[in-house]
Design brief:
- The complex is a heterodimer.
- Chain A is mainly beta.
- Chain A has no helices and 12 strands.
- In chain A, a hairpin with an 8-residue loop joins strand 10 and strand 11.
- Chain B is mainly β.
- In chain B, the strands form 2 sheets. In chain B, strands 2, 4, 5, 6, 9, 10 and 11 form a 7-stranded mixed β-sheet that branches.
- Chain B is globular.
- The chains are: A mainly beta, B mainly beta.
- At the A-B interface, strand 5, strand 6 and strand 10 of A face strand 5 and strand 10 of B.
Chain lengths: 114, 117
Amino acid sequence: AQSVTQPDIHITVSEGASLELRCNYSYGATPYLFWYVQSPGQGLQLLLKYFSGDTLVQGIKGFEAEFKRSQSSFNLRKPSVHWSDAAEYFCAVGAWGGNTPLVFGKGTRLSVIA
Amino acid sequence: NAGVTQTPKFRVLKTGQSMTLLCAQDMNHEYMYWYRQDPGMGLRLIHYSVGEGTTAKGEVPDGYNVSRLKKQNFLLGLESAAPSQTSVYFCASSFRGRGQPSTDTQYFGPGTRLTVL
């Protein structure tokens, strides 16, 4: 079965600074991977996903993520954070074949300070 | 398209009361899911369905029942609510995976905030 770890529970960055949120997965085959964002009081919204091909994936709101098989990681990045990026971010991993649902990490809460 | 909708948005129950949460999707998705979200616990899967008339248990199924009588609806029931079921409940839906992936992108509803006193 697949699993995902988000090592950082809470990160604070200054507005305009760069951001990297970490995600490590465990799965025996090539995974497919997602990042979701949850603004306060809202449901989850898809930022980006990786199924195959180019390991650098572009998403909405200026986010990107890079799949690194050797490190079992799928870290989310943004070059310049805006105050509106303050939210909770979830990484998820899916399996190939069968009916297995996605497995979500516990989330990283991002705070943005002026 | 409304996407995924959840009814109600808020609810307060007393211990022992029952209620049903309704999830509806208009995207013709085969799969539907119920999660609960608690501080520090992330999203935990309660039950899910891979098609009309079929359901399966997730990570935390105890105390909940589900039904999928119509493809577009997925109901979550609490027969005898307990304070431990105070949580925010999210419904999601997705297509069956195309080709190899077992499931495609999940689309989430706005959530139902449930308090059990």
